[in-house]
Fold these 2 entries.
Entry 1:
Amino acid sequence: MSTNPYNDDKRLIELLERWQSGNFSRADERELLSLTESDEFRRETVEGFWALPETDHALHLASLRTRLRNRTGGARRVAIPQMLAAIAAVSLLVLAVIWLIPNAEKTAQLAQQEAPKPTENQPGARTFPDISANNEASRKQEGAMLDPIIKAEQGKTAAPMQESGPPASTAVPEVASAPSALKNDELAADKMVVAKPNDPESAYQKIAEEQDDVERKPGNATRSEAKKSAAPPAPAKDARKMKAASSTDISQPLGGWIDFQNYLRRNARLPEAARQNNVSGSVRLSFRLDDNNQPLDFKILKALGYGCEEEAIRLVKAYSWQRGNTPEVTLDVPFIR
Amino acid sequence: MLRFLRQNIPEHQSDEQLLAAYIGGDAPRALGILYERYMPMVYGVCVKIFKDSGKAEDAVMTIYEVLTRKVKEHKIESFRGWLYVLARNHCLMEWRKTQRRPTDHHAPEDMDRYDAVEPVFEYELPQGESPLERCLAELTELQRTCVTWFYYEDKSYKEIADLMAEELGKVRSHIQNGKRNLRICIEKNS
């Protein structure tokens, strides 16, 4: 097919947008009609738009674009958590280095305590094919027996740290972002577990990092430590964690909260009545997702009046949702003047 | 994904290239990009059949799902033409499902015959008593004003809306209805 029909289609869509916006003259109508003359598809398109002259088709098309992008944006959805995990891992590394420098004495102490660990850890990597050459075969056999000991030790070192550890230094995450923060930590911890056996020299550092992690975020770290000691050998462990990280624990918009907020920013417009009465702000509402991911049982927790509630519900309904373990969702729909 | 983005700027690819990339499996998002190109047109066709923008919107999304299944089953020569037929048939099928009694059945084509896109106003200002003038007089005040301003005074929709202090949607509606009534009236009189 030549590129010509496509350009004509584009022009047709442009003209229909002008028809919608009102910037539409007789000459535009003439051009629009001439485009429809030879083409059924275009003719029916125009007939469709003209059949409902009072409808805001532009709004429907904007909503459709969002829906389509949410539907096809699979690659993006995976990429963002991975990127976040990578950033988390890097920042942890940096933090670990910063931690190590002023606490040289402490690290020396730690090093003494942990000295046997890096070598003992190696057998834990028996399932990895690329074990370094200095691992004797005998050690491999011991691996199975040593494994629980290591884990127990790790549990021990982690436990006192938790008790004496300072409170979490990071700000309390928002409700919506909490689960993803958890996931990132798990992923980051996960990466360390994977990295450890491949790089014997950094093994010690990684342990230090983990302890760093424990001190900063006692709750989260306990979870991942606990998981580690309870989990089966490495590959299975990885698979399990990946699954945990990718499944949704709470209900959320398809495509994530960031996309949804962008959608609201673009589409949440104050109803005319609200504008005339100088009302603005946000509507807080809660709802439930049914088995088909359809939102229902809307409750207004904070109202603005003048049709804002209906508009907020309409916006939520127009979006695609992903039900998690808890079907209830509470959110704010901001209406900016 | 990076590789995909670097190798081809999707917006500049032809329909068939995008389709091949999707079917080949190395660019799962290509079909979405391709579909977005024609989405306003598919939407228009759906609105024409359903006469309801909300239903049309849902149908556009359903058609995308159908598309993801069907593009791999069929050998597609021209994506554009194929999509048009697919979208149209899908909407007609859905629309028929909603018609409860088959005796009430009117094909949508019959219903909107008078909305058909045909240039009616390629006339000069009529001299004396012509059917057009008589029919213009039969329109409502608002319709007549809108139609005259648009066709004889070359005003844009927005200008008319401003002049009449009317909502834009209403102006679009008056012009559409005025045109339809005129056509019916002229057909009756000739």
Entry 2:
Amino acid sequence: MTTSTTSSQTPPPRPAGDASASSAQQLSEFVGTMGPIVGLFLVFALFATLQPRTFLALDNLQIILLNTAVVGTAALGATVIIISGGIDLSVGSNIALCTVVIALCRSRNMPVIESALMGILASTGVGLLIGLLVTQLKLSSFIVTLGLWGAVRGFAKWLAGGAEIATAPSWISQLLQMLQPGQRWMIVPWGVWLLILLTLFVALVLRYTRFGRHVFAIGSNEQTARLCGIPVARTKILIFIFATVFAGIAGLLQFSYLNNLGDPTTANGYELNVIASVVIGGASLSGGKGSVFGSLVGALLMTVVANGCNKINLSNAVQDMVTGAIIVAAAAFDQFRQPQETVK
Amino acid sequence: MPRLRMKGVRKHFGATIALDGVDLSVQSGEVLALVGENGAGKSTLMKILSGALAPDDGVMWLDGRLYAPRDPLDARRRGVGMIYQELSLAKDLTVMENILLGMEPTTAGVLRWSEMKRRSAEAMAQLGRPDIDGTLPLRRLSLAERQLVEIGRAICIGCQVLVLDEPTSSLTQSDIRHLFELVRRLKADGLAIIYISHFLEEVREISDRFEVLRDGKSVGGGESAQTPASRIISLMVGRSVDQLYPRSPRKQGEPILEVKHLAGKSKPLDATLTLHRGEVVGVAGLVGAGRTELMRSIFGLDRITSGQVRIGAYVGPASPARRWAEKMGLVSEDRKSEGLAVELDIADNLTMTRLGWLVNPATQAAESRIWIRKLGIRCRSPKQMVRDLSGGNQQKIAVARLLHHDVDIFLLDEPTRGIDVGSKAQIYQLIDELACRGKAILMVSSYLPDLLGVCDRIAVMCKARLGRLLPVDQTNEHQIMLEATGAMEMG
């Protein structure tokens, strides 16, 4: 007997076409991807209505993008880590380390490109260390990166000799500078273009490469990943190295933002902004779920709130409260959209 | 007057009709068995009974009074207790804290420990196990004892209708005997009991009446003891199953897997077997005998401390990746926590072992569609989350992963656990076909008729040691049970 006769013994399977997907689920998925964008749009519209003249000014829109670049770039890496079920609390310290390394290289007259690469290399070194500690000592990434959150910043301060390192002007600072009148054709500054390209790149990696699918598999169910022969430890190390490349690029952008300054105390607390962006973007801290476009929108949403609050003269204290509320609201929205299974 | 009556209960999810007018009633002091294939609507019906879902239509009465629970808590207060397959207990709390969870006796917010002790002791005494100390932390209890605690919690709240959902699926034979004694005792105390199970022998032994659900409808029922199992099965699947275990003439080929004196950390202690192409070898044994560990050591998931596994000419360090490359695949006994990534879609789960450097989602989906069609997996599309499928369909995906990888050696650990009769028949059909095509199958099952029906040779594992492989016609259930329980050594 063949399998076809077996299947005829049970009621015939429903056609396996995408078209027959229930409308409720489709709606839920649509809302899931659109949720952060709708949120961004609403917040944007709110400030645009309250303060159209200053908030909607071209220069201000450019500032919003500039202020998103560093956190947004770091959030790309963090998205990959969070989808795999891990977390990186050391990303802010790592950004600071990167600015210091670039500054040190520059002050020793190393060419710009090499200096930038050294900075990124230092950052991925931290990623390798995280990966090794997580996989070889079987520690949770939360604990490992909590330790490195302090240790890496300490290391950066030690490297810098406890002070900022100012360096000679270079084209790096143009990455995140307001466009000059002659540069209008670029629409947005170099650094923002870089962020857009990197976002596309990570999205493609996650969807169209084996590495990307393994990231989802490990985050969704590590046991299954092991059963399926996925080299879990090696992939986890790769994930942290891959992610810290983006922390390094974020460091480069921060170096640009600080106008060629290596500062071991910069980017303090960025790890929380980065994680918040990823969560607002629809990722789940328990792994298996997330999107880089979402994270980018999340990062943008946070900058828009900060910038908008400034424009309508709300104090810093109020800004912090609003941002906090948005993070919780985003997570609650996601929960509401996907009600947890009942007991069974 | 029946203790519980449900009439015309309907429920739909989107376009899917889960329940299409179900009628059901249970008397006090009666055990009603609810049977049906997975996806027949049993779970939905029970969720409605326990207040987790609201019906679209239909009425329920409890002791003649209208019953429409707002939520599970309301249902519990009205006296409807559910015992799910997966227990909902807090492992770090004590037995009595678990029993009284959510209804702790307090004075001004302070717990009255002595009363808690007394009430949990009463509940455990009613269940016939006064020896279980209420102050023990739950994690020190066996699985069967934990189930008792869960039942104790239902008793303590004054439950009148008790629903047991697949209560025996992870119990040993002797635990099942104890559970049955308990069910009879509770029945004598006047409880109405709804018993859900796939094991028809159990159903016929423990229940007074049975009710069959198929495609969301009640299709029949009757007196359990007087109805032959084959009749119940034909009601469940809507046809008669005379060939649950197909067995085509098979030809044993060359040896493909040789295991010699294999030992792992604690289990197995000593296992030797040879698996040939074109045969199905079964491993019988009690729960905890080390059968799963044997499979895992062979597959490279558990460390091997001594002995060897030879596949073709290769004897060497094992890892799951290595095994897949050698065309060996494993279906885990635990679908949810190991076998499948239930939050990923069907396509990802199916193709996970065989991805190239670059992955084309369209190809993934197309390849999945082939297996969805061949195995009759009921789903909306390859993009559907595995979590949304019924147990039988999930299991088919776990097996399809091996088919897609085109493995030669199938390690199947409890391949039909917790799935409906229809899917079960399909999986056995498939195993037979694979063997005929020269594949080799090593299979673990706790259900002896399955092993006897499907396998060519059977070995029994007892206390982490694997016994001799015997052709299936030279052994029988009695013989296997003797060996599995270690009674052979004594006799």
